Amino acid sequence: MDILQTIKIAMRGILDNKLRSFLTMLGIIIGVTSVIALVSIGQGATSQVTEQIQSLGSNLLTVNITGRGANTTLSYEEAMEFGESPYISAVAPIMNGSATVKHGNKNTTAQIQGTNEEFLGIRNYKLAEGRFITSADVYMRQKIAILGPGIAEDIFGLVSPVGQEIKINGQIFKVVGILESSSSMMGSNDEDIYIPVTTAERLLQNRGVRTIYMQAASEDTVDLATQEISVKLSRIFKTDTNSDFQAYRIFSQTEMLDTLNETTSTLTMMLGGIAAISLLVGGIGIMNIMLVSVTERTREIGIRKALGARKRDILSQFLIESLVLSGIGGVIGIIVGILMSRGIAQVIGITAKTTYSVTAIAFGFSMLVGIFFGLYPANKASSLKPIEALRYE
Amino acid sequence: MLIQLEDIYKIYKLGDTEVHALDGITLGIEQGEFIAIVGPSGSGKSTLMNILGCLDTPTEGSYLFEGKDMSKLSDDQLAVIRNKHIGFVFQSFNLLPKLDAVENVEVPLTYAGKKGPARRERAVKMLEMVGLGDRIHHKPKELSGGQQQRVAIARALSTDPPVILADEPTGNLDTKSGTEIMQILKELNKSGKTVILITHDINIAKQAQRNVHIQDGKIIEDVKVAG
User: Do residue A300 and residue B159 have CB atoms under 8 angstroms apart?
Assistant: First the structure.
């Protein structure tokens, strides 16, 4: 049997019934389109979030102290001791609290974050203007402040705040820098005011550190650093490292990435799965039309059998027809799916990512649907007895 | 002996009653014969033709074609017999309406495994032989009944089968076209083909060399005629 000839005959059959063929293919088109579009957008979103997390520096460790009993914080000095570990290259403790901020007649409440000179580097923040806290500022308990871009605009409007003075809880602070806006999964710096940690100790009358950002020496030492921190904190808070209760929590970037990847890949799979169901429905549409086609063409089948067509000739004719239908549907679906994912991505402001594997899987699946749902009608056609098929009117 | 039917029965069950469409047919056909099987409608001649053409199988009895027992062949082997050894000419032409004349003629060649230009060349040659060389790209509905039947004959001849099985080939045609078709069949017979003609029309049957009359599934007369 001549495959090319069969494809030609199948194509002609499809073109003879343009509307019907299109409606038949529509199911496959919608299925492939939704698989491609949903998975592309899902993967685009995933890679965007992954990049965001990686931009925080993949060596970042965040320690949150919840404490035990009355003992709920670390002192600044205790926190800085973590820096002695060879696995940890930088430590930035955070002492925070809210305070009233005044400038001229503007009056607002802001989160005050007391930290040290390492903070900027560890969190991968950038300065828009001026400078950040220096070690000298920490040592000298300088009353200087670095503002987040949001609060800077709230208080100063369009005037540059660098060099201006603000009152925090009645004490005068000099603004020396403004941060660039940076918001991520880890929160936003927009409304925060950063001051030296030693200054914060006095201002907030609160000698405790609840959050410590640390940078592991390298990506490979993240786990070792985590272990070491854990052991030290367990000693301080007298907890067992193996017990369920923990006085602290340590997040590493890798851990966060793993969790996220797991979540998004589950989500992508789910979306793809839902879309695959519509592909299946499309397949049922193909089967339906092919069955109608077999009935309509019973006489043709009879004639072909009388002229010497074997079972496999008829089988392959109908199978190829259903494959051509699902194949064309698949190709149209891929094109529409790519265009659609680009369009949707643009609207929601992400970059869609259509991988070859998704395209190949979607197309392969549509062909599989064509074979699977074409097989029954094709088999029915090829099993017709020549004499019965010929008699059929 | 080309074809040897021995005690062929074809029995249909309709509810409780059995209908003997063929009731013990014994018939031999020699290579190169021009034989007409004649009978009124319902006589069983169409059933006989279907069995001769390997489109149907008898309930009982043996059918030897070129010495081979047809009851022992699989469906696909029977398809090969239909393809290479028997050429069918039907009353209603049975052309594929979506294919043009030459493509219709190519259908058996395709199943015979012939490919490309050789297949096309053979099909065109067959159409020229039946006088339709100028109409090879006409669709069946663009052709007259006589022309359609000639396409069907060209198709039947395409794989050069030794036997032509014609079922009321003139039944749907006017007298003139019918005469032309009969002429072609006679010429084919002269060129060495075995022609088996099934008809209810005594006048058509008389043009063959041998008439086998069938009634109620039985052969009632088997005579040589002038031809």
Answer: no
Side-chain-facing half-sphere of A20: CA atoms under 13 Å: 11
Assign A187 a pLDDT band (cuts: 50, 70, 90): low
Which residue in B54, B77, B96, B115 has the most chain A C-beta atoms within 10 A of its own C-beta, making it the best mutation to test that interface?
A: B96
Q: For an interface test with A, which of B111, B158, B159 has the most A Cβ atoms less than 10 Å from its Cβ?
A: B111
Q: Which amino acid is at B153?
A: I
Gap between the Cα atoms of B74 and B78, Å rounded: 6
A375, with CB counted inside 10 A (0-12, 13-18, 19+), is: middle
What distance in Å separates the CA atoms of residue A373 and residue A24, rounded to the nearest whole number?
12
Q: Residue A342 is encoded by which pair of tokens?
A: 């680009």
The number of C-beta contacts closer than 8 angstroms across A and B is 63
Write out chain A residues lying below 8 Å of B165, CB-based.
Answer: none
How many Å apart are CA A178 and CA A363, to the nearest integer? 52
**Cβ-Cβ contacts under 8 Å for B142 (sequence gap 6 or more):** none
Query: Closest approach of chain A CAs to the CA of B156, in angstroms?
Result: 8
Quickly list H helices, A297-355.
298-306, 311-348
The CA-based angle B60-B66-B70, given to 5 degrees, is: 30
Rounded-to-integer distance, Cα A237 and Cα A248, Å? 9
With CB atoms and an 8 Å threshold, state whether B107 touches A307: yes
Q: Among residues B201, B221, B212, B225, which one has the least CA distance to residue B41? A: B201
**What pLDDT, on the 0 to 100 scale, is given for residue A133?**
92
- Calculate the CA B64 to chain-centre distance: 17
Integer Cα distance of B147 and B173 in angstroms: 10
Residues 311 to 330 of A: which have CB under 8 A from any B CB?
Answer: 311-313
ipTM: 0.93
Q: Would residue A143 be called left, alpha or beta, if left means φ above 0 and alpha means ψ between -120 and 50 degrees?
A: beta
Judge whether B40 and B215 are in contact, CB under 8 Å. yes
Tell me how crowded residue B133 is: count the other CB atoms within 10 A of its CB: 12
What is the radius of gyration, based on Cα positions, of chain B? 17
- DSSP state letter for B227: -
Check B55 against A386: CB less than 8 A apart: yes
CB A85 within 8 A of CB A210: no
Read off the pLDDT of residues A144-185 as tens digits, 9 standing for 90 and up. Answer: 999 998 888 888 888 888 989 999 998 999 999 999 887 665
Distance CA A368, CA A379 (A): 16
A308–B83 C-beta distance less than 8 A: yes
Q: Do A313 and B112 touch (CB under 8 A)?
A: no
Cα–Cα distance for residue pair A319/A376, rounded to 1 Å:
9
Q: How far, in Å, CA of A371 to CA of A322, rounded?
A: 7
CA distance B94 to chain A (A): 7
Look at chain A and count its residues: 393
Does B79 contact A at CB distance below 8 Å?
Answer: yes
The rounded distance, in Å, linking the Cα atoms of B47 and B5 is 13
> Which H or E element spans position B120?
helix B116-129
- Which of the residues A307, A321, A379 would you substitute to probe the B interface, choosing the one with the greatest number of B C-beta atoms within 10 Å? A307
% chain A with pLDDT above 90: 20
